[in-house]
Amino acid sequence: MSSLIVPVMAHAQAPAPAGDDEAVEVIVTGIRGSLSAAARIKRQSVVGLDSITSEDLGKFPDGNVAESLQRIPGVSIDRSLGEGSSVTVRGFGPQFNNVLLNGRTIANDSGGRGFGFDNIAAELISGADVYKTSRASIPEGGIGSTINLKTPRPLDIGATKGVVSLKAHNESLSGKTTPSAFALYSTTFDDGKMGLMVSASYQLRDAREDSFNVSGYVPNASIGTQAGQTNGYGSNLSPNVPLFTNVRFPRNYNLNLSEQRQERTGLTATYQYRPSSELTFTADALFSRYNIKRTVATGAFYFLENQVRTAAIDANRDVIEQTENGQWDMVMQAYPRKSDTTAFGINMDWHPNDQLTIVGDLSTSDASNVGGSGSYYIVVGIPTNVTWKQPSDGSLPQLEVLGASISDPSNARAHYATRGGGNTSTSVQEGRLDATYVVDRGVFSSVMLGVAFNDTRKENESFGIGDAYCTYCGYPVVLPQRFLTPLDLGGDFLGGGLGANAPLKFFSFDGLELLNYLGSPEALAQLDTYYGRAPGSVAAQLEANGGYTLKRQPSSYWVEEKTSSAYIETNFAGEVADMPWSLNLGARYISTKVRASGSDRQLVDVKWISEGNQTPVYASATPVERTVEANYSKLLPSLNVKLNITRHLLARFGASETLTRPSPSDMRPNTSIDDARQGNMRASGGNPALKPYLSKNLDLSLEWYPKKNLNLAAAIFSKDVSDFIDYGVASEAFTITNAQRLDTTSVIDGRTHLADPAFTATTATFLTRRPRNLAKTRAEGIELAGTYSFDFLPGWWSGFGVTANATLVDSNAKVSNSTEVAGRTFALPGLGNSYNLIGFYEKGPLSVRVAYNKRDRFLSSLSGDGSGGPVFTQAYDQIDMRASYQITPRVDVFIEGTNLTKEHLVQKGYYEAELLGDNLDGAFYNVGFRMTF
Q1: pLDDT higher than 70, residue 813
Q2: Cα separations (Å) of 702 from 523, 580, 609, 716?
Q3: Sorting pLDDT into bands at 50, 70 and 90, what band is 280?
Q4: Which of 203, 241, 427, 880 is 20 to 30 A from 599, alpha carbon to alpha carbon?
Q5: Are the C-beta atoms of residues 320 and 314 closer than 8 Å to each other?
Q6: Domain segments of the chain as ranges
Q7: Residues 896, 334: Cα–Cα separation, whole Å
Q8: Of 92, 80, 82, 145, whose CA–CA distance to 116 is shortest?
């Protein structure tokens, strides 16, 4: 009975008042211990949850938190450079999952709500609970799930204990080996009344990723050459006569070599003071620094419809072969990330008597990424001609350069150059007070009341260079060869599937060094000569456009949300027909106030120039910052029932309403006029008045625990989500002076314009694209899971065991083929089946675990391929392993491997032949030792 009333933040270990989903933490070791602890937490819980626990202090099941979470039924992950970065739960992506650290909101460094698990080293975490059903005391925000990451507590550990781990990390693609280290020390003193734990983690990784990509297929294209074009290839055949019309045309051909150095440092500290058995104070802190230096060298050919000389199409009217005039582009890109995450909290757990428990908690968390402004994108090109062929099965296309050599540095010319990006910051202040009272009258067990507040502010600062990016457009200037470095991708690039004549040898360069040269008098003088202008003309134009100096852009914005909440939970327990049951019933009321600020130019009029040609008139040439406010409130009920049908078989039922708030980027108040031409008046922007996504959830599950070494579980679920946010177009009236009376027929400068129905005497109507609460969707699925240890076998055979699970999901917003995509404006990205199979052996000093994960084909984006088309990520499977050997009771050595079979991540478009991406991160390995004391 006492397990029903343990308060939400007991020792800051969980995000919810426990009910019986909170067990006393037990330090376990080994694979079996970790699986047993997870099963015990799941079995005791009154809500639907799954858990992972560390095998020992500083020994998480995988080298990455997200990689371990994907072993849980219903959870799948997305990867960045081969490392798990974000999670999808029951078909709902990262922004729909509320991530907590010790029951508190932890800030993220992105512009949205999705949490990047690559920010936190796995060794710092002792476990994680994934709440799949909700209860009133759980902080709102997760339609998919609430994920609570936990760090160890010194008073739970008890005696003095330390851990030191060192390992060498090797990347199969880069061939580089880098170090990682972890240390933890925990102790108690003052007769066990005080405890202190500190830990530190350092990881260095030199990664490489090989990839091919196409920026999309242009629909309804007409292809063919223009009159008079030869470009070194020969005279035209049928100039100005299209070869084909209404075809799907590939936008480009890109070969990318990404090299990345990532350095991650993590620190945690926890202090606990328990002056009496009734009162415990806990203070804990976390710091994580994640710095990435990433450069991408790209060899590319940008296909233009009017440069195609010969072509062939397939039955779907996809262009599958062509020869084309153009330029071989060599692109250097940089995407640095300088991310800091901090979290600090204090907690009081007070039991003044046997019936009352009071828990108070205050916390703050900050995250920032100031690396975005250091991004750049610089293009150098060589005029040439190519032939290209796309196999019908969507495998890697074959491209051959026919004209000028792309490995001759004398052919290289400057083209496009820009720099800048976005810096983000998030700050969270949070507090809560909970009180639990044991009623213990009949079936009425306890009641819990709580209040909470959360103040979150997210800022996105955008930096750029203005209008200077196209100073060298058109390949006018031959570059000095000193800037170019030969680059050979190697014949085994992407497994050697690009063909014998693939363009694998070209040039890379230092982007910032070249950018400095492009702004120099030497380079600008060549442009004056090229254009036949007076000396200094281009330099003056570049200066007028702001040069290559970074400036804060008007697209910057900030969004602040202040939420207050109150909840009540009641717990009941009893028996029916000799079957024990427990029931949790509650409701959570939340009220959120939103303030958003951004910059735009105020439209005051639309000026008519000629028939069909109009231009906007603004109050000022400089964007003006404005702040808007909105608010909403919701009541979120929840019900959880558990029935112990037999000693070993139990059933659960859950019903609840949950919400996920809109992305801050969608709530920015910026609005821009994109086109003011007659008949094509269009605008776009954000929407601070967005309502949150609201989901009605039902869950039913059966769990069987017949033996200590065996458990099976099956669950079905459904989620009905309303107010789903989609980018919709609607007519919006903008207030203007309409000085020329465009709503009536009149004469301007001796020319007659006709009345335009888009205008009234004081308004202009634009078709405006912005995020709106437009859609509804339903997702449903089945989860199956089981674990079995072969303890009954004789001798060393008893060390074997297996755990497996499968998740099958479906939705009325699911898109799986081109027929379903047609006419769609909304679909649920990330929805797909997933499977896990883990075999392990643990006997004596030897421990081995081999994990297989598969994720079926799923929609990544309905309109994200660069030409407005869908992106489908193809079925992907991966094998990981870990083996350790205990040399002494305190020292073990280990080896770990990730993606052992070096699988490719492949993305395709509308049809099977439309290969959009092929990414290879290779395998990586860790070898090291771990010592405890």
Answers
A1: yes
A2: 72, 15, 71, 9
A3: very high
A4: 427
A5: yes
A6: 220-250+304-330+377-419+466-549
A7: 30
A8: 80
